[in-house]
Amino acid sequence: MTATIGQGTSRTGAGGSTRHLHFELRLPHPVDKVWAAVATPGGLPDWLAAADVFEPRLGGAVTLRWLNGGEDATHSGHVTAWDPDVVAEYTIDLHGRCRFHLEPDGKPGTTLRFTNEFDGDDALRLDCLAGWHDHFELLAQALEGRPADWSTWTPARWQELRAAYETATPAAPR
User: Fold this and answer.
1) 166: nearest Cα among 126, 136, 135, 131
2) pLDDT tens across 47-104, in order?
3) Is this model's pTM higher than 0.85 or not?
4) Fewest beta carbons less than 10 Å away: which of 25, 29, 68, 128?
5) What is the distance of C-alpha 53 from the center of its chain?
6) C-alpha span between 38 and 87 (Å, rounded)
7) Residue 142 host element (H or E)
8) pLDDT tens readout for residues 120-148
């Protein structure tokens, strides 16, 4: 089994500005390994961001520092749901609510269902779809023992994904 990263989907909330993004990943790794990647300060830098502050409990503080560039790359918030090996949810100032829900999927697979809710316009929706997709590709590589080399990261893959999402995913109404 190899990692499968489905195309992200989105919908817009009733008020028109809240965006709901969804991804489903099938990963050929046990839940505990995927959990370590998405819910520990040691695993997050391999594919997403450095966890400068990370309190693994409901209400715990979280400060994530994106390693793929940008001057305003540090964002803070709190753990808003926490059920070890099942749900890790962080609500942070830039990215809103980010929920990782893990389910066993065969041996030794895991299905990761990801939801991101934030306020923003359609351009931000497309940016985030491309960004999360890019990061989930990096997650699959990190789980295979190839963590991201942030010194060589470029926005080329993100730009390719952004263009693809622009043509493929119009904003769906609630």
Assistant:
1) 126
2) 999 999 999 999 999 999 999 876 668 999 999 999 999 999 999 998 899 999 999 9
3) yes
4) 68
5) 18
6) 10
7) helix 122-143
8) 999 999 999 999 999 999 999 999 999 99
Which SS3 state, helix, strand or coil, does residue 144 take?
coil
Question: For residue 104, how many other CB atoms are within 10 A of its CB?
Answer: 12
Q: Two tokens at 168? A: 């493929």
Strands 61-66 and 4-5 turn out to be unpaired
* Residue linked to tokens 């990190």: 142
Residues 41, 128: contact at Cβ < 8 Å?
A: no
What is the length of the chain?
174
Question: What distance in Å separates the CA atoms of residue 147 and residue 82, rounded to the nearest whole number?
Answer: 25
d(CA 79, CA 99): 10
